[in-house]
Amino acid sequence: MSYPKILTIQDISCVGQCSLTVALPIISACGIETCVLPSAVLSTHTAGFSGYTFRDLTDDMPAICAHWQKENIAFDGIYTGYLGSTKQIDYVMQIIDTVKKSSAPAIVDPAMADNGKLYPGFGMAFVEAMKALCAKADYVVPNITEAALLADVAYQTEYDRVYIDLLIEKLQALGCKNIILTGVSYAKGMTGIVVVEDGEYSYYEHELLPNSCHGTGDIYASAFVGALIRGKSAYDAAVIAANYTMECIKATAEEENHWYGAKFEPVLSKLITAIEE
Ligand code: PXL
């Protein structure tokens, strides 16, 4: 694959440093042609702003896909993030079947919840639909809240390896193949990523930074996709993405009024260097 072309499907939050405004620059910077299918257009993201607009683009999806099919357009990977409705999830599954090259990976970030709560506007019907999309994916990148919802296991803030193993087992039973579980903390002041790749389990532990930012899940998943498509193993891509996300959080810590997202732009060169190594 000399010059890969991937498709990412998620919303455009016009302001807020998340979803497409993060995925497009990050994956492009990784040297990958990045095509987009916006799932919705919002004036801002939904976490912390009030009165945001929401234009659902679900009904545009079949015609966009049909046009690509007519033009013989096919992708070397499809990466999905925040999706706007259960109907949209059904369309996304059809899009994967239609325009993804057969050997290309489908990477699903089931972006729907954090800190024990679903994002505004999502209910259990959305979780059920997301289960089917995750079962179809080659890689899933949930946080612990999303994994617990998908696994039908109660969310816990305090846990041990037994709880994490249960989440992984239930995700595998659901049909998830390779799993990148983020935000797994076993020790005070530390956090990390559990990677299950071809059935093999590994854990990358790193420092837990004192500040947290909105949008880091999207930064993480986008950097993971960039590194994976550039040929890294899932574990190496997970490590590269974790280190880059930490750099973004550090870059944001210096600025007081940047609560809505993370400053991923000034540290992009560190991601590129890690991928080129
Ligand atoms: O970062 C995930 C995300 C993406 N898109 C929208 C969101 C969120 C999280 O709140 O609201 C619109």
Structure description:
This protein has 277 residues and is of the alpha/beta class. The chain is built from 9 helices and 11 strands. The chain has a 9-stranded mixed beta sheet with strand order 3-2-1-4-5-8-9-10-11, with helices on both faces. Helix 1 (20-29) links the parallel strand 1 (5-15) and strand 2 (33-44). Helix 3 (86-99) runs parallel beside helix 4 and helix 8 runs antiparallel to helix 9. The mean pLDDT is 96. It binds 3-hydroxy-5-(hydroxymethyl)-2-methylisonicotinaldehyde. 3-hydroxy-5-(hydroxymethyl)-2-methylisonicotinaldehyde is lined by residues 11, 13, 18-19, 42, 45-47, 82, 111, 119, 215, 217-218.
Judging from the principal axes of the Cα atoms, what is the shape?
Answer: globular
Helical segment tally? Answer: 9
Overall pLDDT score: 96
The residue ranges in which pLDDT falls below 50 over 5 or more consecutive positions are none
Q: What proportion of the residues form beta strands (DSSP E)?
A: 15-25%
User: How many strands, what sense, and barrel or not for the largest sheet?
Assistant: 9 strands, mixed
Fraction of residues in H or I helices: 40-55%
Bound molecules: 3-hydroxy-5-(hydroxymethyl)-2-methylisonicotinaldehyde
Strand arrangement in the largest pleated sheet: 3-2-1-4-5-8-9-10-11
Series of secondary-structure elements, N-terminal to C-terminal = EHEEHEHEEEHEHHEEEHHH
The computed structural class is: alpha/beta
| Oligomeric category | single chain
Number of strands: 11
How far apart the termini lie comes to 18 Å
What Rg, in angstroms, do the CA atoms define? 17 Å
